[in-house]
Specification:
By secondary structure, this protein is mostly helical. It has a domain at 24-93. The protein is built from six helices and no strands. The termini are far apart. 3% of the residues are buried.
């Protein structure tokens, strides 16, 4: 008869160390280095694309010829830095960066017209139920309310 102290249910297997332990570690290290190198290449590619895009955008907003991009130093990356570099070197390349970048102020009529156009293009017309609800809410008399609800009022009230 088995009792509570029998350990027949448990298999004790000794863990044997892998004979290729260091070899497997070297393989994992080579794979990790290869992955790191691929990620570094991808990162440098993305950084260069981002810098090119930033330079192009700043040159367009300043109204400067895009051929000047090749003269901007590679350590100048942020759009603010590019703008400062352009202002400092504007006389060297013969352009002016004092171009007005803000839109001219609109008259009150133009603002009103723009607001109307925006609301007309983005406005949502109410559905049938919402329209009926709004009409019921705005009814000013009992007869008007009865008419909206489809109840005939031939001079009689209920």
């Amino acid at each position: 008869m088995a009792n509570q102290y029998d350990d027949d249910d448990y298999d004790y297997e000794e863990e044997t160390p892998d004979a290729n332990g260091p070899a497997n570690l070297r393989k994992a290290l080579r794979k990790a280095e290869k992955d790191r190198k691929a990620l570094e290449e991808q990162l440098s590619s993305l950084k260069s694309n981002l810098r090119e895009r930033s330079v192009k955008e700043v040159l367009e907003t300043k109204g400067v010829n895009s051929k000047i991009a090749k003269f901007i130093p590679s350590d100048v990356e942020a759009p603010e830095q590019i703008a400062v570099w352009l202002e400092e070197n504007a006389d060297v390349f013969g352009f002016s960066t004092n171009r007005q970048s803000e839109p001219a102020e609109l008259s009150q009529e133009a603002i009103t017209e723009q607001r109307i156009n925006n609301s007309a293009s983005t406005g949502i017309t109410p559905g049938r139920d919402e329209d009926l609800y709004n009409k019921i809410q705005s009814a000013s008399s009992k007869e008007e309310l009865m008419q909206l609800m489809g109840i005939a009022t031939n001079g009689r009230t209920r």
